[in-house]
Write a structure and sequence with these properties.
6 helices, mainly alpha, 137 residues
């Protein structure tokens, strides 16, 4: 099931870039990000209440709260930067650079989460990095 959701995530992320580039025309990038965020907020809480997941709020540890909030700040910063880049750059150049997050994520997972690098993941990182350079140069 994780593979299906991962594939759907990539399809929706691709649509996000295209729809955002069209929608951001003539709109301040920060305002556009706020509108997008409001939609995501309503959608996410709608799913929480639809699945009755709100009952778990009281069981979230302080540590989890801290890291979820920090993750939210990182997401917000990412979205603000992404929308500004989309506003002033070409989607075909912005999106590949954004996907360098895969390489950065693997490095951070190795450093902070002590996840193991495999030969496949190292080769994949190199190929993603090289592919990104090839696409934006």
């Amino acid at each position: 099931m994780w593979l299906l959701f991962a594939i759907l995530s990539s399809v929706f992320a691709a649509l996000t870039s295209i729809l955002a580039k069209v929608g951001i025309e003539g709109v301040n990038s920060n305002l556009a990000t706020a509108i997008r965020t409001a939609v995501v907020l309503v959608m996410a809480w709608g799913i929480v209440f639809l699945t009755n997941a709100q009952k778990g709020i009281g069981q979230i540890s302080q540590r989890s709260w801290l890291f979820l909030v920090l993750s939210g700040f990182a997401t917000g910063a990412s979205w603000l930067c992404y929308y500004k880049a989309l506003q002033i750059g070409q989607v075909s150049r912005v999106a590949p650079i954004d996907k360098l997050s895969v390489v950065i994520t693997l490095i951070l997972a190795f450093v902070f989460l002590h996840e193991q690098f495999t030969v496949k993941s190292v080769i994949g990182c190199i190929l993603i990095g090289a592919g990104t350079l090839l696409m934006v140069l």
